[in-house]
Amino acid sequence: MSLRNRELANLVAVGVLTGLGFASVYIARQHVVSTGSLSYAVFFLCLYVAAHVVTRLTVPNADPYLLPIAGLLSAVGVTEIYRINPDDAFRQGLWIVIAVALFAATLVALRRDYRRLESYKYIAGLTAIFLLVLPALPGIGTTVNGARLWVEVGGYQFQPGELAKIMLIVFLAGYLREKREVLAQGRLKDFGPLLVIWGGAMLVLVETNDLGSALLYFGIFLGMLYVATGRGLFVGLGGALFLAGSAAAYKLIPHVRERVTIWLHPWTDHKVYCPQVDRLTLRQDCQSYQLVKSLYSIGNGHFGGTGLGRGTFVTVPDHGKPHELIPYLKTDFIYSAIAQELGLIGAAALLLVYMLFVARGFRIALLAQDGFSKLAAAGLTFGFALQTFIIVGGILRIIPLTGITLPFVSYGGSSVVANFVLLAGLLLISNRAARPPS
Amino acid sequence: MNAQISRLALVGLALMVALILGTTYWQAWASAGLADRQDNAIQRVAQFTVKRGLIYAGDGRTLLATNVRKQVGGQTLYFRRYPNGRLAPEVVGYSTQSRSQAGLERSYNDCLTGSNSNLSTVFHTAIDRLKGVTVTGNDLYTTIDPRAQRLANRLLAGKCAAAVALEPSTGKVYVLASSPSYDPNLVEKNFAQITRSGGACKPASPLFDRATQGLYAPGSTFKVVTASAALDTGRFTPDSTFFDPGYCVEYGQKVFNAGNPDQTGPESFGTVSLTTALQHSINAVFCKIGQALGAGPIVDYMKRYGFYSVPPLETPIDERAASGRYKGHRLDRSTSDADPGRLAFGQERLLVTPFQMAMVAAAIANHGVVMRPHVVDKILSPNRGILTRRHPEKLGRAIKPETASELTTMMEAVVTGGTGTAAQIPGIQVAGKTGTAETGIPHQYNAWFIAFAPADHPRVAVAVVVENGGFGGRTAAPIAKAIMQAILRRG
């Protein structure tokens, strides 16, 4: 079977799975949802077949698994969002349409040779910095949940950090390909850029109050630096610098300190001061409320889960209206919802799908023939893996929790759009790597 | 570059593996612990599909907790209702979504939701789940006597007070009343209404169970414990004579009996027997006994009665308090700085619960043996099979049978011709002891009465405390009498 036919077959399988997912939600919640929900699956199948037609025309030799994986992940996301709130699922569906359109546009625009991006690397770098600074600007930046990651224009919110990530990777791929020999020699003056970017990451940390984003950008940078130079020492040094910076941030920024305290001791037996209500409460009722509630959600899933549509996310109304048991469920904590309804089996399967995406991404990096392509593919894939780890690891208390999105699954337009553009990038690189020599 | 890419790929894949391990930890390893957490609302809400077991009073008819069925969003859910809500909320507690759980609803949650590990329950629950049938919990039958409990609630109404009645030979709890109380139906619906409700005291704390958690100075009721030590050690007999000068010398200072509000009769009695001293609650005599015995033996007998440990009962352990000498908010186990003279008449930082004092009365009534108090009589499975039935269990012997019968005679004298005459029941011999404990505020006393009846063949033992109630013999004794009468009348 040709690569593209394989992709189509996979997409049809994803379409069937999506149909099953929506049918499960419909069966469990038919008193709230309409039969119209079943059309979501058909709609998604059509959307991805359309995306498939574009890949057939623009990148015929690209990896056949990445698009179906992205389709599966976004379908899981929309199904779960639909189960939490059907209206949000409709909006998310619209964002996926926009994302797929941008995906197609990226493929069409760069189908001949994406490597010309390399000459725009400094523009990409500056754009990344601009996007990162955006939330800090007064007037348009908004603080959500203690972290400044959002920009609000005319009632629409988006996280510029998601796109900045891709710009940063393009810049680093171009810059590192050019300077890798010089950097590998390890002369002191060549550490300049490393220090500049370390400083940048720290600035982002201070400005956004967000340890997770800083970890993400700096992690991508270190990963790519290692791929470019092969010097483990740089990674060690960089890691040490990041730790030092984080320690300083811990000392200086109360928000960061609170995050770490929540991570280490989410439950207290005695009452501690709660700034939100200005009195003493148990920490699980105050600062670590979200984390703890999300853990309860995960724990309630056990091995097999409660079943799609049968999880407990809101109180049962005896008197008054139901209220949510887990805050930020559809965005930051979508994984807790999935883990409760699908159980360990479903959650582990989802993570294996992520793992498959990561494996395919690195395979593309290995097969790519030029330095820029290798660096870009490795950077995009590692960034994808790291972002997944930072949010899910935060939810699972492996690292301190920071609110970033779960790629393809979380509710949020900027995240979906950015990840489809990332996917387009990987497909372009993969297409070139597998192209028969002309 | 490929070597580096492979290594970076390994890191990336290792991160995903870590996530799978993390998820496994929370969903397989830690999930039981998470489910048991008090603030786990998901767990409680998920249990609303379970038809919780019913809770009955001791007559097997009066419903204390039941369910209403509602169709919410296509699901059949069961909401808790308390038809006789105000009868015994201190025992039954409540089960809500927003305010967690309390009382038997909390401590017997597994049993009431059919998730206890009893083999037959596990089997039925599993079958029900497989069939898609509503899981039904097991029913609890308590030992609460609804008539006596209702009477106690009425007598305590408007006061800040508590009453406990036990069956001495079994440890059955007939009455466990605390005032001001609350309606458990309001906990979820209108919690503010509960917190707003006032009472005779400040803070009124209607959710606070004064019977098992309220710590009060026992005052003269504690003389029963001192007398236990005095008699049981063989150091004194009921006829031992003492000279009462009207005061007791403590640290070179005279502490006058006149300061003892519980004493009746003249300020100085002259030469009296131990029986007379208890009958009229003479501080000076008990002060001397305490000094003769030392604090050690008195504390020893306290422990035999169950002081210094949380009294056993089926309610959650943090809803009960231990009695004993307190330093700040902590039990003080050392006796080195205890003044035996003051200890002997129930001051000296002694804090006790009405429940513990009822246990003291019950032990004396039961020939010196302390029975394990219990409020759950039996548990029935949904198909009416008995899962567990409580059998009387001895906790230990506090005093010798002879000591118990001597004390009984002495306590009868209190009621026939001493401070506790208000507790007399026509035709039935009552044994009792009054207490009027200083609160630290001048002219404000907590009124106490502990008693059991009939003295020759006791069927009920009670303890009553009324905050700011004045003299124990006048305020608490009539309440204790009425409760005992209600229970004895059952036949």
Beta-strand percentage of chain A? under 5%
What oligomeric state do these chains adopt?
heterodimer
**Rounded radius of gyration of chain B (Å):** 27 Å
Overall pLDDT of chain A: 86
Main β-sheet description of chain B: 6 strands, mixed
Largest interface: A-B, 63 and 48 residues
Mean pLDDT of chain B: 89
Largest sheet of chain A: 3 strands, antiparallel
Number of strands of chain B: 22
Q: In one word, what is the shape of chain A?
A: globular
Quote the beta fraction of chain B.
15-25%
Low-confidence stretches of chain A: none
What report would you give on this structure?
Chain A is 66% helix and 5% strand. Chain A contains 14 helices and five strands. Chain A has helices at 3-28, 39-58, 66-84, 86-110, 121-133, 160-185, 192-208, 211-229, 232-252, 254-264, 289-299, 334-367, 371-395, 413-434, and strands at 141-144, 147-153, 156-158, 272-274, 279-281. In chain A, the strands form two sheets. Chain A has a three-stranded antiparallel beta sheet. A two-stranded antiparallel sheet of chain A has the order 4-5. In chain A, a hairpin with a 2-residue loop joins strand 1 and strand 2 (147-153). In chain A, helix 1 (3-28) packs antiparallel against helix 2 (39-58) and helix 6 packs across helix 13 (371-395). The relative contact order of chain A is 0.14. Chain B has 491 residues and is α+β, with helices and mostly antiparallel strands. Chain B is built from 18 helices and 22 strands. In chain B, the strands form seven sheets. In chain B, strands 3-2-1-6-17-18 form a six-stranded mixed beta sheet, with no helix packed on it. The chains are: A mainly alpha (438), B alpha+beta (491). At the A-B interface, helix 8, helix 11, helix 12 and helix 13 of A face helix 1, helix 2 and helix 3 of B.
